Amino acid sequence: MITGLVIGIPLFTIALILFAIIGWFEYSRPKTGIYETATVERKGAYYEITLKREERLMCHSPDCLIFPETYTNTLVIKTPGITGKVDASEIPAEEYHFNYLGEIEFKENNEMIVDLYYDNTDENKKVPTGWSGQYKLVFSSRAVSKPGAEFFSGAAGTPDGKDALNKPAAAISRPESGDRNRRQRM
Q1: Which of 2, 71, 140, 165 would bridge with 183, disulfide CB 3.0–4.6 Å?
Q2: Model confidence over 30-80: pLDDT tens digits?
């Protein structure tokens, strides 16, 4: 009986330490996912809808397991309108990208539901874009407001001049022109 107790204490201690380490890794990671807001701006015949999400950098060394980092990924979708339903066939795909399948639905109270997929013609598959979800529309000061909707004129498209993460507009990093692949870190 004494032998089992002596062996049981170290095993319990090891299990407790492992549980604490796993818990620390899980809860200390930066949050990822899509932002709740999408910015709308009028550009010629189209409306540009900018969607953002936080993603984790890939880990290639032990230090990134301890101190994980994220970056902001951005998708700009061009739609002919911002009312009712817009079929994916009306959304132009970027050069060298698959066409979209699905739809974008604009609802009352400046809400938008994105249900988009990529039409992977190489493998004949419908692939989720990772951008599907419900968003609150924020109209940039250069956009034409949709009929019956509030028109925001704040510095970053909100009434208080702050962005979706509640940071002042001046704190938002912007890519230099012509540098489309630059990762933005906040």
Answers
A1: 71
A2: 677 889 999 999 988 899 999 999 988 887 877 777 777 888 999 999 999
Q: Residue 137: name the closest of 118, 158, 168 by CA.
A: 158
Q: What gap in Å lies between CA 5 and CA 1, rounded to an integer?
A: 6
Q: Give Dmax over CA atoms of the chain in angstroms.
A: 82
How big is the CA angle at 93 (ends 185 and 129), to the nearest 5 degrees? 55
SS (H, E, C) 111-163: EEEEEEEEEECCCCEEEECCCCEEEEEEECCCCCCCCCCCCCCCCCCCCCCEC
pTM for this entry: 0.61
List Cα–Cα distances, 94 to 15, 78, 79, 87, 182, in angstroms: 51, 10, 13, 16, 17
Burial of 49: CB neighbours in 10 Å, binned 0-12, 13-18, 19+: buried
CB atoms within 10 A of CB 87: 13
